[in-house]
Amino acid sequence: MLKARTKNISIVLYKPKYAGNIGAVARAAKNMGISNIIVAGARDFDNEEMRQRSTHLAADVLDNIQYVESIQEALGSFNYIVGTTARLGKGRGPFLAPRQAARDIADISQKNKVALLFGPEDTGLANEELRLCHAVVTIPTSREFTSLNLSHAVMILCYEIFIASSPAVSAAEAAPKLALSSELEGMYGQIKTLLADIGFLNPENPDYWMMHLRRFFTRAGILSREVKIVRGICRQLEWYAHHKKT
Q1: Is 1 within a domain?
Q2: pLDDT, averaged across the chain
Q3: CB atoms within 10 A of CB 170
Q4: What residues pair up with 84 in beta bridges, in sequence order?
Q5: Does residue 21 sit within a domain?
Q6: Helix residue ranges per DSSP H, the chain
Q7: Which of 163, 161, 149 minimizes the C-alpha distance to 118?
Q8: Cα separation of 188 and 193, whole Å?
Q9: What CA–CA distance (Å, rounded) separates 99 from 62?
């Protein structure tokens, strides 16, 4: 098992609602050796409340939080994105337990930037946000009370990553560098357009087959150069389809 490279791991909070939770997340992250936090789609939180919940020892983590407007901007530069959810459903998985995901993250983080994505406290991540993820984690809880505080969920996943790591071995054994999320989204958009043009996708529910294609490419662990190959094939097929029509 490879020791996780925590400098390559970031916590992304999408539309958090409470300043205190952000402060508590900063404290939990620093406890587990992670110092990168991105807040997407929300800003102007009470700084004093954040600092009270983080304690002064995590003040540096708070000072370096990045605030961005959209989830796409937050995730675009990452190679591997792990979403979290308590709501199960056929269209939202497949799901991993934190311990299983942590082993993958420790390996992938050697050469890739990893985002741990958490949704709003009241609703969590919607299907639209989970489609951007390479893996989805659900934390087992009592059926009587499944809701976890945001900082608790962050702590559990970060703790599992911390525990999953053992002394580092040769970097040659690490997982290769994967394509960026922004590259993948561009590819998915091009594939979706092509498949719609040739009549493969149901226009009333085009995302159904796209969800399966996303899962296929995620399992394959597609690289940046492979994205370029797929997009090149799509361009050639688009050219062929256009000229065949004319």
Answers
A1: no
A2: 88
A3: 8
A4: 137
A5: yes
A6: 19-31, 47-54, 59-63, 71-75, 98-108, 127-130, 150-164, 181-197, 207-220, 224-245
A7: 149
A8: 9
A9: 27
What would the pLDDT profile of 158-182 be if each residue is shown by its tens digit?
999 998 875 544 444 567 788 888 8
128 CB neighbour count, 10 Å cutoff: 9
Are 193 and 220 members of one domain? Answer: yes
Domain membership of residue 185 as a residue range: 181-245
34 close to 11: Cβ distance less than 8 angstroms: yes
What local confidence, expressed as pLDDT, does residue 245 receive? Answer: 66
**DSSP category for residue 41:** S
Cis peptide before 94 (omega within 30 of 0): yes
Domain for residue 52, yes or no? yes
Q: Which two three-digit tokens encode residue 229? A: 């190959």
Longest dimension (CA), the chain: 68
Tell me the two tokens of residue 140: 């087992």
Contact assessment for residue 135 and residue 72, using Cβ atoms and an 8 Å cutoff? no
> Smallest Cα–Cα separation from 120: which of 23, 35, 39?
39
Q: Are residues 149 and 220 in the same domain?
A: no
pLDDT (tens digit per residue) in 58-93: 999 999 999 999 999 999 999 999 999 887 766 666
Number of folded domains in the chain? Answer: 2
Instruction: Look up the pTM and report it.
Output: 0.75
Per-residue tokens: 57: 């020892």
Domain end, chosen from 139, 173, 207, is at 173
Helix %, strand %, coil % for the chain, to 5?
50, 10, 40
Phi, psi of 207 (to 5 degrees): -80, -10
